[in-house]
Automatic annotation (TrEMBL):
InterPro entries: Thioredoxin (IPR005746), Thioredoxin-like_sf (IPR036249), Thioredoxin_CS (IPR017937), Thioredoxin_domain (IPR013766)
UniProt superkingdom: Archaea
One GO molecular-function entry: protein-disulfide reductase activity
Annotated source species: Haloarcula amylolytica JCM 13557
PROSITE patterns the record matches: THIOREDOXIN_1, THIOREDOXIN_2
Amino acid composition bias (Basic and acidic residues), ranges on this chain: 7-20
PANTHER family reported in the protein's UniProt record: GEO12009P1
Gene3D superfamilies: Glutaredoxin
Domain named Thioredoxin: residues: 25-137
Record's keyword terms, sorted: Disulfide bond, Electron transport, Redox-active center, Transport
Pfam families tied to this protein: Thioredoxin (PF00085)
Record-given protein name: Thioredoxin
C-alpha cells in the first residue's frame, strides 16, 4: 500500500511539473507561484525548497483562528513578492511539523537556497513578513 501511495505521489508530481512547464499554472514571470501552494509531505517540501530560491512555509491548522487571520496576509505576500509560499496542514503532516519543531500554529519558516533561515511564530503583519523576505530575496 505504501508503494502504491508513493507511485501516485510521483505521478501527481510529474503531472504538476509537466503542467508547469507548459505554462498552464498561475505563475509569475520569475517562475514563482502567485498563490500559495499546498505541500503534503517531506518530499514535496524538499522539492519546493529546492526548486525556488526563497520559500515561505506556513504551518497551519484549519481550526486555528490566528491561522485564518494570517491567510489573507500570506496570499498577498505570495501574489506581490518574489517568494514562493507553501502551506502545510499540521494535522495532516504531523511528522513533518515535528521534524521542523513546530509546536504552535501558525508557524512560518523562511527557506533560502533550500535551508531554513528564519522562524516566525504567531500572527504576523504583512510589513513584518515583507521585511524578513527582503533580507533573502
Amino acid at each position: 500500500m505504501t508503494d502504491e501511495l508513493e507511485e501516485i505521489r510521483r505521478q501527481k508530481l510529474d503531472e504538476l511539473r509537466t503542467r508547469g512547464e507548459s505554462g498552464s499554472t498561475n505563475e509569475s514571470e520569475s517562475g514563482d507561484p502567485s498563490e500559495p501552494i499546498t505541500v503534503d509531505g517531506k518530499a514535496e517540501l524538499s522539492d519546493t525548497t529546492t526548486d525556488h530560491d526563497v520559500v515561505l512555509v506556513d504551518f497551519y491548522a484549519d481550526w486555528c483562528g490566528p491561522c485564518q487571520m494570517l491567510e489573507p496576509v500570506v496570499e498577498t505576500v505570495a501574489a506581490e513578492t518574489a517568494t514562493t509560499v507553501a502551506k502545510i496542514d499540521v494535522d495532516a503532516n504531523q511528522e513533518l511539523a515535528a521534524e521542523y519543531g513546530v509546536r504552535g500554529v501558525p508557524t512560518l519558516l523562511l527557506f533560502a537556497d533550500g535551508e531554513p533561515v528564519e522562524r516566525l511564530v504567531g500572527m504576523q503583519d504583512e510589513s513584518q513578513l515583507r521585511a524578513v523576505i527582503e533580507k533573502y530575496a
